[in-house]
Automatic annotation (TrEMBL):
Pfam families: UPRTase (PF14681)
Pathway(s) the chain acts in: Pyrimidine metabolism; UMP biosynthesis via salvage pathway; UMP from uracil: step 1/1
Necessary cofactors: Mg(2+)
Phosphoribosyltransferase domain ranges (all copies): 10-217
Protein name: uracil phosphoribosyltransferase
Length: 218
């Protein structure tokens, strides 16, 4: 498999076990949301750990001092979802860091177009986003069209590409290549890199339409 230097693949040993039910076509929407949320909690922790950390000195209840403990100030971070499926991952981030700022971008693939080009409908960002590290949340990276449009919108708002971490559950190599060629400084963190896209630009083997399965709109 090709190696992608800007991609971090989460290595937690529970990940393969959580991917099985969400890939399985017989999994109900309720079970899909349950296992996907457990998986996204791990992904959110991994994305969080990629943020800039401060070195702090702390004392434990035993009286020992740790001069080089690390701490991330999540109140200065913005988590941005690509609506709709991205909201599920945004909520996983907010569960572990309730004080993050929140931004939203509504982008939908045009499923009637051959290249599934994305259409942008709306965005809203918090004041000061330009100075914040951003965790951009969307569980699926297929052609890369949606996330490239989302990154362009963040750059227009003054964000730095180096400050953006794109978190997703499954990435297709075609999408990784498209994002790295459009925005080489954006880092990507994923649970798994799948084989390819099919003719309909769905990830293979993939899991189908994440948003439909998570929200029960199949
Ligand atoms: C899905 C997914 C990504 C996009 C990925 O969203 O959540 O946003 O497709 O495909 P791409 O890399 O080819 O752009 P979709 O537009 O289906 O909307 P949804 O979140 O409402 O399901
Ligand atoms: N969006 C999804 O939800 N799944 C895919 O495989 C591609 C785009």
């Amino acid at each position: 498999m090709a190696s992608f230097p800007q991609v971090t693949v989460c290595k937690h040993s529970a990940i393969p076990h959580l991917l099985t039910p969400i890939r399985d076509v017989t999994t109900s929407s309720v079970q899909f949301a349950y296992y996907a949320s457990r998986l996204m909690a791990l992904l959110a922790e991994e994305a969080m750990a990629m943020l800039p950390a401060q070195q702090v000195s702390i004392t434990t209840p035993t009286g020992a001092t740790l001069p080089d403990a690390v701490r991330i100030n999540t109140s200065k971070v913005c988590a941005v979802s690509i609506i709709r499926a991205g909201d599920s991952l945004l909520e996983a981030v907010r569960k572990i860091a309730p004080d993050v700022h929140v931004g939203k971008i509504l982008i939908q693939r045009d499923e009637s177009s051959a290249d599934k080009h994305p259409v942008m409908y709306y965005h809203k960002f918090p004041l000061g986003i330009a100075r914040m590290p951003v965790i951009l949340c969307d569980p699926m990276l297929a052609t890369g069209g949606s996330v490239i449009m989302a990154v362009n919108t963040l750059l227009d708002a003054g964000c730095r590409a180096e400050s953006i971490i794109f978190a997703n559950v499954i990435a297709a190599p075609e999408g990784i290549e498209a994002v790295s060629s459009a925005h080489p400084a954006v880092r990507i963190v994923t649970c798994v890199i799948d084989a390819s896209l099919n003719d309909n630009k769905y990830i293979m083997p993939g899991l189908g339409d994440f948003g439909d399965r998570f929200y029960g709109t199949e």
